[in-house]
Amino acid sequence: MRLTFAITRWNPETDTHLHEEDYRLEVSRGMTVLDALIRIKNEQDGTLSLRYSCRSAICGSCAMEINGTEKLACRTSVRKEWERHGQIAVAPLRNLPVIKDLVVDMSSFWGKIRGVTPWLSTIPRAEIEQAAGQLTLSPGSYQFHNVDACIMCGACVAACTTHEVSEGFLGPAALAKADRFLADPREPVASKRMRLTELEKDNGIWDCVRCNFCVQVCPKDVGPLEAIIRLRRATIGAGLVSSGGARHVTGFADIVEREGRLNEALMPLKIARFNLRRMLSVIPLGIKMFVKGKIPNPFARPIPGIGQVRAIFNALRDATRVPGRTHP
Ligand code: SF4
Ligand code: SF4
Ligand code: FES
Question: If you take atom 6 of ligand 2, which residue's CA is the nearest one?
Fold first, then answer.
């Protein structure tokens, strides 16, 4: 079968903008998109640039956009893509600067990984001997939730909707990496608390909008969104609740637990926490809600059966105590 591959090209020395070029190729059974791109480069156009190494979904270097979704080219079947989409369109990863053709600059990606301190914090010499028996992980003493399976391909960052509008956002891969170290029982509690203090700042865990795209595109089932939710939970569990995101979540939960439903009239108070500057900033929103008839009675009574709602909250609190995780 002879198929057309529409490949996005860009040469910084000659092109002013990205453009597509079509290549026709006879495809064979079991051929991957990476196989096809290598054939095109070797047989038709040696100027085509792409990045790859292991060809086995291990090194993470061949991530690119294939028919609009971030995938590893070395484990994406040409035939299946054709059957599903009726075309093979290949482009570089989004949200990262293009160096040439399908090769993107991963510097910011690595910078963010480094930014979450992806190593165990140093234990003072005096504590090393004392902790000697605890420096080896024993089965059952930890639960990394598969976040250590990350191959740093960058697909999640390319798919991230927050990253699209906010380049400073730490991003799903770095936050998943942070979760892996937070789950490590060998790190001192004080260090974990310092991690969370950094992660709750702007561009950290509370900037994720939970679109779930990072989970959908990850080739290794790392589940970055679940990692972010664990980090949020740990942050609140550690009493770090002064950030806007934490105030919103805890305020929302408080109201529902007390009344059995959300009372929008009380949310601004929960978020602003009687801080005058914050209160003034929510007044325009309050006026709009009042005009639209969206402000319920702030003194409404709890719903009938409120005891059952509170029982759910209590059960949730018990269920979310993660075994093996030491909360800072
Ligand atoms: S769930 Fe959060 S981290 Fe994942 S892609 Fe969406 S905004 Fe980004
Ligand atoms: S979390 Fe998944 S998609 Fe993101 S860099 Fe790691 S392996 Fe790739
Ligand atoms: S070439 Fe290594 S993951 Fe695809």
Answer: 150
Q: Which residues, judged by CB distance below 6 Å to any ligand atom, belong to the binding site of ligand 2?
A: 60, 150-156, 172-173, 176, 217-220, 222, 224
Query: What atom in ligand 2 is closest to the CA of residue 217?
Result: 3
Per-residue pLDDT of the chain (328 residues; tens, 9 = 90+): 899 999 999 999 999 999 999 999 999 999 999 999 999 999 999 999 999 999 999 999 999 999 999 999 999 999 999 999 999 999 999 999 999 999 999 999 999 999 999 988 766 655 655 655 556 666 666 678 899 999 999 999 999 999 999 999 999 999 999 999 998 888 888 889 999 999 999 999 999 999 999 999 999 999 999 999 999 999 999 999 888 899 999 999 999 999 999 888 888 778 877 778 877 887 888 888 888 887 777 777 899 999 999 999 999 888 766 544 444 5
Q: Considering only CA atoms, which residue is closest to atom 5 of ligand 2?
A: 152
Q: Which domain holds residue 10?
A: 2-104
Determine, yes or no, domain membership for 209.
no
Q: Are residues 72 and 135 in the same domain?
A: no
Number of Cβ atoms within 10 Å of the Cβ of 111? 11
- Which residues have C-beta within 8 Å of that of residue 36, sequence separation ≥ 6? 5, 25, 27, 78, 88
Together in a domain, 134 and 219: yes
Q: How many domains is the chain built from? A: 2
Domain boundary among 58, 78, 104: 104
Say how far apart CA 170 and CA 156 lie, in whole Å: 12
- Ligand 3 binding pocket includes 59 (Cβ within 6 Å): yes
CATH number at 155 reads 1.10.1060.10
Report the nearest atom of ligand 3 relative to the CA of 59: 2
- 128's CB contacts (< 8 A; 6+ apart) are 135
- Say if residue 89 is in the same domain as residue 75: yes
- Binding site membership of 55 for ligand 3 (Cβ less than 6 Å): yes
